[in-house]
Amino acid sequence: MSINKNTRRLRVMLIAIVVTLLVSCNLEEHDEMSGEIIESEAVEKKNEVDQPEESVYYMLPSALQIAHIYRKSGLKYFPNLTSETRNVDKYVTETSKLQNLGVYSADLCYVSLNKQSQEQLHYLKAMMDMSTDLGFSSIFSSGAFVARFEQNMENEDSMIVILSQLQERLDYYLQDAEMEDKSTIIFSGAWIESIYVSLSGFRMEGEGTGASIRIHEQLNILASLIGMLEKVYEPDASIITLMEDLKGMKLMVENFGFMKDVDRDKHVQLKNVSMTDEELDQLQDKLRKIRTKIING
After folding, report:
1. Does an H or E element contain 45, and which?
2. Mean local confidence (pLDDT), 173-199
């Protein structure tokens, strides 16, 4: 129980820091981030071993953070990339509901940061319906929350704060109820949807190198996500399949050409990381197949 209390404090601190940074950051500041140094695969694995087990969770970004990163990278809004909200009723198993709650949370962040008012309401309702089915309705229980959401849909800074608070409420609920496995499953859906939507948007824009930089940042999370899923207690068939699919995607990426540079050098400048169009196509196809399994329930 003491670990849960400590990690909850860390989570609250992280959210506070992230909200402050996201509200204040601009495109120029984010461009500076693209010059950060990525440790090689071997160094990353060493760091994972050295870190306390519970810290891995907090290295994983929220769907809002991912959406904001891509938004600041210049990603335009494309309709019809997100998952259909009308699919809510077809999710029957707990795992499919949890994963697609994560999917809808990523979609909500995407449409909110692009000021798609009607879509924001659709995804908020979908999340509320899904949360009710899962027994999480208390995170939306305050009528003031919904009213505040509706009143600020055109204000990006306010929406960042509101969506961060929504994530915080869900985190509190799951940690207090000691349901970390559910949190992991929700995140898996959110992460897949975030990367799929972002990569699809970049590919539609015909952008290459910039996509490689942003995608590579997120692929560094993949090993941690797989590790978290492997710790899920008594995973069902869909979680086992997801783990195998993610391991296959990780292996595929490790064989991409740019990974030779990562393996050869101790430090690789993020701005020098680039995927070929063929590699981006392969990654997009793999993501599409994994996502289809999730949204099909």
Report:
1. helix 41-50
2. 90
Q: How far apart, in whole angstroms, are the C-alpha atoms of residue 261 and residue 136? A: 45
d(CA 168, CA 8): 10
Domain that holds residue 8: 2-295
Extract the tokens encoding 4: 């849960």
Place of tokens 């950060």: 36
Backbone conformation region of residue 232, classed left if phi is above 0, alpha if psi is from -120 to 50, else beta: beta
For residue 118, pLDDT beyond 80: yes
CB 38 within 8 A of CB 267: yes
Neighbours of 193 (CB within 10 A): 30
- Could you say which DSSP state residue 137 is in? G
| Residue predicted with more confidence, 208 or 237 | 237
Distances (CA, A) of 245 to 61, 192, 252: 21, 11, 10
Structural domains in the chain (count): 1
Q: Are 286 and 252 in contact, with CB atoms under 8 Å apart? A: yes
Query: Would you state the pLDDT for residue 265?
Result: 54
pLDDT at 59 over 70: no
Instruction: Please tell me what DSSP assigns to residue 236.
Output: -
**For residue range 211-250, what is the model confidence (pLDDT) as tens digits?**
556 666 677 788 889 999 999 999 999 999 999 999 999 9
Task: At 70, list the tokens.
Answer: 């891509």
The residues with which 267 forms a beta bridge, in sequence order, are 39
CA distance 61 to 164: 11
